[in-house]
């Protein structure tokens, strides 16, 4: 081998990046591919974000959203001016919103324009009180649109690179380097790059809106930093006090309701379960003592709270014996009961293996040898039932508080969460979901005022929307389905799928009867529950729809309970402070057998007062044999529902 002399070595070309050329071919290929992917993701991400747009809602309005580089949220009201607020997005991103009309389904509530205007003001007040819920769907839609656009751009870039490599037969880099040596190519590429940056920047600077001015009428609200331009600024500054007054009235009313609810539970002697009832599933853990009284040391929780009325000593010390008339007279609990006739002991569910006297604390457990090791104690499962909320988002925080205080394991929604099932009512769904803790399941059977769109909005917000199959909560199986009809305000009722309410009821009955077990049937329309109950395939059916409470009453081999409206819906508007009493129901179910045990009603009055009612037992269908003259309904509890029924017979 002949070596090169010094002159030849000095003429040998030197490589520009020695480190790079020391790497293997595979390493350099991996690095180039990774850099290509990084650049592609960055470019496609920027393009996707800056071009994202969507049609969504802004409170009760339809609106068009577009991402901008102005770092402001600009709400275009057309000839009335603009609304501006600092953007919460990373610099320099902002949003432009073009406000459009309010859907006709939401404007046909009243033929009286004054009443309609008052309803609009109340609706805007609710939107002001939950601004995050107003834009939640729009934000999610913009993110989805940006990701979709970025994916398209990234795919296009990679396709172009792959096509170029194929056309150059794998020598793309050499072809690009050769083209760059041609005269004028590099300056032309630089001009194109500068243009792509400069033109959008110039357009953004040119289209920046006027600074606007703050509105003194909105001081002290979540919109106090809002700025406005044009004629609308003058109108809001002059008449915005009505909106603020409605907002403050709404906030004060429901804050008072929440405070009264907490106070009512704090004063209640049986906050989470009826007094005097040993745990019934799978068997009482309390063992009998020689004197016929349960040993309070076996239930430290009850001994601490005074809830176990079967312990004579604890009752004497705390006055918690629900079967003692004197205790009732002292606490005044019967006065808060709708009928005031039955004592708490009479209304408690029977306990297997215990005589009726033992429940009241006057007798003893059967004279049998106690088990050496009592079965593991299993608490019943507690649910909070709401229905017919009709977009009264003021009740959202009240419902969340009731769920927490009652110890509910899940929230059951019997439907009609919105008014007309329109896309703009997503802020109602988001407001309710936003108040409920993330770890509390929300199970809903949508109503006739909820649409397919509403059901999808609920799924996006975290609801479990029943669709004809059972779901399970701590061993309790809940079956239900969405209502097959849609009622838009002012437009009547129309089918939303090829099925009627009775047909849905028959289908659910088949599902309940063929399933391993169905403990609760949750449907909006009470008629849909009858086939399942009459065939004895579910012990309890819960529904709403009628805006009045009925039952619990026995139908066939099960019990039907119809909830009143949790929004105070009584034929008028359901936004703002309550126009009628609002009700929620706390109920308990034995997880081992699926048998409904007991319930209580929480009532919110139009004056913001709260009544946490007494505990009642659910009727036992097995103890109520129908007579020849029965029509299928018997065995209702002593809970008086005639007063509610006489208040109105129109079914919603």
UniProtKB/TrEMBL annotation:
InterPro entries: Calcineurin-like_PHP (IPR004843), Metallo-depent_PP-like (IPR029052). GO terms for molecular function: hydrolase activity. The chain crosses the membrane at residues 30-52, 146-164, 185-205. Residues 269-374, 619-652 are annotated as: Disordered. Residues 382-548 form the Calcineurin-like phosphoesterase domain. The keyword Lipid biosynthesis does not apply. Keywords: Membrane, Transmembrane, Transmembrane helix. This is Calcineurin-like phosphoesterase. It comes from the Bacteria. Residues 643-652 have a biased composition (Polar residues). Pfam families: Metallophos (PF00149). Residues 306-343, 364-374, 622-638 have a biased composition (Low complexity). Residues 288-305 have a biased composition (Acidic residues). It comes from Georgenia satyanarayanai.
